[in-house]
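Pipeline run #58 for the internal structure catalog. This entry was flagged by the ingest filter as a single-chain record with no existing model, so it goes straight to prediction. Upstream metadata was stripped on purpose; only the residue string is passed forward. Reviewer on rotation: M.T. Logging verbosity set to normal.
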Amino acid sequence: MRKIAFPARLFAALLMLCACVLPPAALAQTGTGSIVTIPTRIPDTNADGLIKLDGWALKVSPKLPRKTTVYGPCPGLPDFSYRVRQACEAVTVPPVTVEPPIVEPEKPLVAPAPAYTVVTSGKERILLGTDIVVGLNEWGGIGTGYNAPKGVDTAASYGFLRVGIYRPSTNLEVSLNGRAIEGFNVGYTFNGARVRYSNQWLTGYYQIPGAFDAGTRWTGVTPTGLAIIQDAELIGSTLRFTAKLTNTTGSVMTGLRYMRTADFDTNNINNSFSQKDSFATDNRIVTRGTVSAGLRGFGKGATAILSSPEASAVATFFGFVNTDPFVAAAYDSPQAVGSTATSDATSNVLIDKGTLLPGASTTVVTEIGLM
């Protein structure tokens, strides 16, 4: 606040104000004209050394101009100032400028590098991962029916130009040896009849027509209207199948079952086993939904896994070409967890999905891995 230099006459008036008016009492007139008494010691409410009086100028003699600021100290009084201003005086408040918020530009999302690549080979698809190559035939199962294109690793050293499940670092093919068995089966009751369909092309079963899109999504439909959309992806050394099953009919499908089946084999190329047991595996029910097949012979030290995270999944090993999801050994009377056997048996995992209403869908997940 700027201090004002007062002439001698005004200074004398100020001394009179301090000595005569302020010690007993100070008077101020409100906007309505009434007189109020203000105590000598006016509280300095915000401790800034400045007292503000709303009203007309103090009634002093000689009169002080309105809007006068009187500076102390006054004799015998605290060192603070008195400001007098006219009541109802308009106060101009500068406009508040609200700056718009600063919006940081969004950083473009960088897609992670794919963990595997997909090779299109006619109607077939080949997935190239880290030390694993998986071939899918046009019927949605593992094992190509045609030679892999140039640049795709296969077990060519012992005769395979096609590809099933192949590990390049150990030159190990686990799906094509012997009779190549891998695929899926569905069964359900429809219009009072129990129906079963199997897609295991390399064994001669191909009952659900379908085809791949540009990637690894395979779409097909059974003769009685169960649509199947199967997505395949590699996660490390595990191939995951996610199949969406949809009832496209106007009738209810009951007792719906989905079974994935695979016969993991190596061969007797190192002559460690006789022809009789060269395709045997060390089979084990690991959990209710997981079966393992320890490979022997040329594949010694590796283990193939077939499993499902579904709550209703049941894993088994039995038989050879298994196409019936309603056989008792596949679900109703399975082996106990911990059961083991060394034999040339097929691994299976079956999921019971119950009733599927018209237009309804359900999803099943199965996985095949190589350890």
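catalog note: The chain is about 5% helix and 40% strand.
catalog note: The chain has a mean pLDDT of 79.
status: ready for reviewer M.T.
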